[in-house]
């Protein structure tokens, strides 16, 4: 069929693919620091710190003012709206601090779930109304990529055909709007780990979801070279009694991706989904060593698995700045090595790094 109505100019495509490649350049991944106020509240509650704007700002200032060498491991940071406009204690905007380090700034664009009536408590994600205007403003304010997380669960009759189609289409519509405004869309269809299903079942569902997402992206004329995928790894449900090695997780994950994700996609940055920091790193390392064709960069976009030790080290005290930055740097480096298949587990990880970070029905 003739391509009569091109969605993007060649200049727009060039810009988008350059941004995407820069984020996942060798060994680099993403710090997902885009927790909403509510989600950050539950993180802070764990360390007995009050969820105030100032406390959220202080923790993020510590992360973002870490040594410049962080840019060898972190190619992009996803921010929440509030954080995009926050400043450090010297009055410098966080986004300028990150950009000065050569880190690309991203913004969370989804606005929470809404029930899909007639399903077993499944959801779609809101935020398409006014999205183009928000994207245009964020681009002016220094963001170069966006993120939208859709949630699919494995349960009785789930995910339903409706939930898969609706979320795939919404992700594709979001991705198209992002690209029109110069933002690289991170497409995140998360099959959450709640449940007692085995890994094979998770693989089956993940393949169905990803196949629907890439069909929808194609229908919406999304330029794949200017996108990044943020999927779950293929694992057993959190309540499953079956245990799998990182090599088994890697084989199931890469098989699912190889069957469904086009080679034009420059990078796949996994979410950590409640895995411990160490498991998230070991699995990513095994994924990069998996003996299957891997035409994309396979990296990380971790929230919990990059910040849990740092949060524990901070404990709300400014005097713990150095220890907090060291803990963050350690995980960032470990994941940088894992993104190249070069991580060697030394056995010296702190308690926080092996602790499960799973929260049931994790939403926002
Ligand atoms: O699973 P993780 O790695 O902790 O976080 C993944 C993530 O998509 O989920 C959170 C909720 O939207 C976001 O803060 C984050 O970007």
UniProtKB/TrEMBL annotation:
Catalyzes the aldol cleavage of fructose 1,6-biphosphate to form two triosephosphates dihydroxyacetone phosphate and D-glyceraldehyde 3-phosphate in glycolysis as well as the reverse stereospecific aldol addition reaction in gluconeogenesis. In fructolysis, metabolizes fructose 1-phosphate derived from the phosphorylation of dietary fructose by fructokinase into dihydroxyacetone phosphate and D-glyceraldehyde. Belongs to the class I fructose-bisphosphate aldolase family. It comes from Physeter macrocephalus. It catalyses: beta-D-fructose 1-phosphate = D-glyceraldehyde + dihydroxyacetone phosphate; beta-D-fructose 1,6-bisphosphate = D-glyceraldehyde 3-phosphate + dihydroxyacetone phosphate. This is Fructose-bisphosphate aldolase. Its EC number is 4.1.2.13. Pfam families: Glycolytic. One of its GO terms (cellular component) is centriolar satellite. Its main location: cytoplasm. One of its GO terms (molecular function) is ATPase binding. The keyword Lyase applies. Homotetramer. Interacts with BBS1, BBS2, BBS4 and BBS7. Forms a ternary complex with G6PD and TP53; this interaction is direct. One of its GO terms (biological process) is negative regulation of pentose-phosphate shunt. Pathway: Carbohydrate biosynthesis; gluconeogenesis; Carbohydrate metabolism; fructose metabolism; Carbohydrate degradation; glycolysis; D-glyceraldehyde 3-phosphate and glycerone phosphate from D-glucose: step 4/4. It comes from the Eukaryota. The keyword Aminoacyl-tRNA synthetase does not apply. Keywords: Glycolysis, Lyase, Schiff base. It is found in: Cytoplasm, Cytoskeleton, Microtubule organizing center, Centrosome, Centriolar satellite.
